[in-house]
Amino acid sequence: MESENQVLESRKSSSFRRLSRGDSSRRISLLTDEAFENESVSEAGDIGDRALHSNRISNSLPVFENSNPVSVDEVAQSVGKKEYLQEEKDVHWLLQYITCLLSLAVFGILGVVARYSLENLFGPNVIGATSDHSYMYLDLPSNMVGSFLMGWLGVVFKPDILRISDQLAIGLTTGFLGSLTTFSGWNQKMLDLSVEGRWVFAVLGIFLGLFLVAYSIIFGIETAKGFRWLLTKSYIRSFCSKKPCLNPYTSNESHFLVTFMVILLLMLVLLWGLFGTLAAKEFEEGGNRALLFLGCLVGPFGVWARWFLACFNGRGLGKNGVAKWMPFGTLAANVIAACAMAALATLKKAVKTKNCDTVASGIQLGLLGCLSTVSTFVAEFHAMRESDCPWRAYAYAIVTFFVSFVLGTLIYSVPVLAKGYN
C-alpha cells in the first residue's frame, strides 16, 4: 500500500508541476504578447532612425519557408550572404543615414507645397469650404488627405515600398505625409476661435477634426486593400509578384544608394536655390508667396527634428519603460510645435510689422508645420483602436489635445486677452 501511495503522490506532484509550468508559460506568453503590443502600437507611425537598424537586422536573417532539411551548399550560401550583408552594413550605414536625411528634406518640402496648395484651394478664396473663423479650419483638407494617403503608403503598401528602398518609404511617410499634415496649425486655429469667444466652434473643431482624420485613414486602408485585390486579379499580378530589383544578393545596393543620394541632393539644392531666390525677391513685399518660399526653406529642419524625436516611440518612461504604448516621440513633437506656434502667434500680435509677420508666418508654415504631424498621430491612434486596449487611443488623443491646448492658452490666449491685442 505504501508503494502504491507513493506512486500516486509522485503522479500527482508531477502533474501539478506540469500544470504549474503550463500556467507559468501561459503567463509569460501573455506578458510577452502584451509587451509586444505596447511597443507595436506606439511604433505604428514612426520610430526614427531605428527603422534603418531594424530593417538591416530583418534583412540579414535568412528566412526558411519550410522545415525541410537544408543541404550543405544552402548553409554555405546562407553564411556567405550573412558575411556579405555584414560588410554592406559596416560600409553603407552612413550612406543610408545621409540618403534618409536627404529623402526627408526633399519630400518634406513637397509636403509643405502640397499643404499650402490644399489650404488655398479649399479656403475662402476658391472653394470656400474652410475658414479661419469656422470649426472647418484651413488645414483640415490637408490633414484628411494626408491621413487617407497614410492608409495607402504607410499601412497597406508600405511593405512593398520597403522592398524598393527604406529611404523612399521613410521619405514618403515621415517626410511627405508628415509635412502634408500639421497638428500645430490645427491647435492654433482652435486657440484663435477660443480667443474670439467661439468656444463651441473650438470644441467642434477638435472632435470633428479627430473624427474626420480617424475615418480618413480607415477609408484609405480599405480602398488600398481593394486596389491590392484588383491587382491580384489583373494582368499586373505577374509584375507585382516579381522579386524586388534591389536584392542585396543580386545587385549592388551601394550603387543604388549613391545614385539615389545624388538625385536627392541635386533636388534639394535645386529646391533650396529656387525658393531661396524667390524668397529674397518677395520678402520686401511680404504676402503669402513670401511666407511659402520661406516655409519651404526651413521645412526640412522640422522634418529632421520630428524624425529624431520619433526614436522615443515605443521606449516608455524611465529605465523600466513605463507606458510603452504611449508614443512619446510623436507627442513631444506635436506639443513642442504647438507651443512654438502659439509663441510666434503672440509675437505677431505684439510686434505688428510686415517683416516680422512674414518671418513668423513662414516659420509657422514650414518649420513648425513639419515638426508636428497628424498622419503619424492618426496611424498610432488607429493602431491603438485596433488593439486589445482601444481605450488607449482616446487616452492618447486626450493627452495630446489637452496638453497642447492648455499650454497654448497660457502662451497665446492669456497674453492676447490681457494685453487687449486686436
From TrEMBL:
Protein topology in the membrane: Multi-pass membrane protein
Transmembrane feature ranges: 94-114, 135-156, 168-187, 199-221, 256-278, 290-308, 328-347, 359-381, 393-418
Coiled-coil residues: none
One Gene Ontology molecular-function label: fluoride transmembrane transporter activity
Subcellular location: Cell membrane
Any one Gene Ontology cellular component term annotated for this protein: plasma membrane
UniProtKB keywords: Cell membrane, Membrane, Transmembrane, Transmembrane helix
Reactions catalysed, as given in the entry: fluoride(in) = fluoride(out)
Region annotation (Disordered) ranges: 1-24
Source superkingdom: Eukaryota
Keyword Transmembrane helix assigned: yes
The keyword Transcription appears for this protein: no
Reported function: Fluoride channel required for the rapid expulsion of cytoplasmic fluoride.
Similarity section: Belongs to the fluoride channel Fluc/FEX (TC 1.A.43) family.
Protein name listed in UniProt: Camphor resistance CrcB family protein
Organism, as annotated: Striga hermonthica (Purple witchweed)
